[in-house]
């Protein structure tokens, strides 16, 4: 009875959330409707996590993590481009702020939470250092190419690339992301499978019977509907968010942080559930895969969109952001190399995440 109710609930809520998106798109919402849309958004997040787990159970790891990461990122990119087209010069740094926030949320917030949950529940959180290290190296390279170098290049004034530099960064990001996906899913797939406490690789299949192909396809469709509803409803309430940010006296970059937090909610919940089941490698696949997709797909799309986007495209990070990124990379390396983590490593990452949130609001 419980599974039957859950199945109905996870089918109905994404459809209702999508209907709310259609009815509220492009309108100024009163406070009561903002609260209602926010409730639909939360329900769509929960439904997205359920359907992502169904799809992941059917296709196995690491493909399941890849499905959710790419789906969320594609819709996140669409949201960024939509806001930049309608926002003019004031959104010139929105892509940078959102992508950097996504990197901090995934590499510190999600990683720290999952390591903490896994280590507290199972004493030590075990994962594969080869696969996780490769993912961290790819994220670091993508972040340096797309977010750090624009601050130091001299072809154009300010933290932005010239047209040639932006084209190179876009092509390099896309090629590097494609290469990583090929390694993760084909050539070295075993590097990204969950491992037991003693270090051996755990079979990617769950003990329960995988869902049928038809069920998985239905869940995939509902996952996409739920993700569209999450991002669309987030955009619907974004004017309220922007007004709240302005009223609170926070900088405009906080809007990008809030957008990234909302969009990454499904992945955060899915990663936390995996960590509680002692599948920390799956959690790390989600976290680093999301950070990688956020950069590797966003930068090429924004580079293409910049042909018709009004105003400059600011990608370079400031000094405070670069310090946080450097600390994240250094801490990530020290966490990944042993292949095992205690609650301390999780706490360190969460402390960096808290510092990011605080400095975003109070630079």
UniProtKB/TrEMBL annotation:
Where the protein is mainly located, per its record? Answer: membrane
Coiled-coil residues are none
> What is this entry's stated membrane topology?
Multi-pass membrane protein
Q: Which residues form the Sodium/calcium exchanger membrane region domain?
A: 32-185, 219-359
Q: Where is this gene product found?
A: Membrane
This protein's source sits in the domain of life called Bacteria
Question: Which InterPro entries does the UniProt record give?
Answer: Alkaline_pH_Ca-Antiporter (IPR052946), NaCa_Exmemb (IPR004837)
- Has UniProt tagged this entry with the keyword Zinc-finger? no
Entry's transmembrane regions: 7-26, 32-51, 63-87, 99-120, 132-153, 165-183, 215-232, 244-265, 286-309, 315-337, 344-361
Whether Lipid metabolism counts among this entry's keywords is no
Annotated keywords: Membrane, Transmembrane, Transmembrane helix
Identify this protein by name: Calcium:proton antiporter
User: Species lineage, top-down?
Assistant: Bacteria, Bacillati, Actinomycetota, Actinomycetes, Micromonosporales
């Amino acid at each position: 009875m419980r599974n039957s109710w859950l199945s109905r609930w996870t089918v109905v809520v994404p459809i209702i959330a999508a209907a709310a998106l259609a009815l509220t798109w492009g309108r100024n919402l009163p406070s009561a409707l903002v609260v209602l849309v926010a409730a639909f958004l939360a329900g769509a997040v929960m439904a997205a996590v359920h359907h992502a787990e169904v799809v992941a159970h059917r296709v196995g790891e690491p493909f399941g993590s890849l499905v959710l990461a790419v789906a969320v990122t594609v819709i996140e990119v669409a949201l960024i481009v939509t806001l930049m087209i309608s926002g003019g010069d004031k959104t010139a740094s929105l892509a940078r702020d959102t992508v950097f926030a996504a990197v901090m949320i995934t590499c510190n917030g999600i990683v720290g939470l999952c390591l903490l949950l896994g280590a507290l529940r199972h004493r030590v959180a075990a994962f594969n250092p080869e696969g996780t290290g490769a993912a961290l190296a790819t994220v670091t390279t993508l972040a340096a190419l797309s977010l750090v170098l624009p601050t130091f290049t001299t072809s154009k004034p300010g933290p932005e690339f010239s047209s040639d530099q932006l084209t190179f960064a876009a092509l390099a990001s896309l090629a590097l992301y494609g290469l990583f996906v090929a390694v993760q899913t084909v050539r070295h797939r075993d590097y990204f499978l969950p491992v037991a406490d003693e270090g051996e690789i755990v079979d990617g299949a769950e003990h329960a019977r995988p869902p049928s192909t038809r069920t998985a396809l239905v869940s995939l469709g509902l996952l996409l509907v739920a993700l569209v509803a999450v991002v669309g409803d987030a955009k619907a309430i974004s004017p309220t968010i922007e007004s709240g940010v302005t009223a609170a006296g926070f900088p405009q970059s906080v809007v990008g942080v809030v957008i990234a937090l909302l969009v990454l909610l499904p992945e955060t919940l899915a990663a936390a559930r995996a960590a509680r089941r002692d599948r920390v490698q799956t959690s790390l696949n989600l976290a680093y895969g999301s950070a990688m997709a956020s950069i590797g797909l966003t930068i090429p799309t924004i580079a293409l969109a910049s042909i018709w986007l009004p105003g400059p495209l600011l990608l370079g990070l400031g000094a405070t952001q670069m310090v946080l990124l450097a600390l994240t990379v250094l801490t990530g390396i020290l966490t990944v190399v042993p292949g095992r983590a205690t609650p301390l490593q999780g706490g360190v990452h969460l402390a960096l995440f808290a510092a990011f949130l605080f400095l975003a609001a109070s630079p």
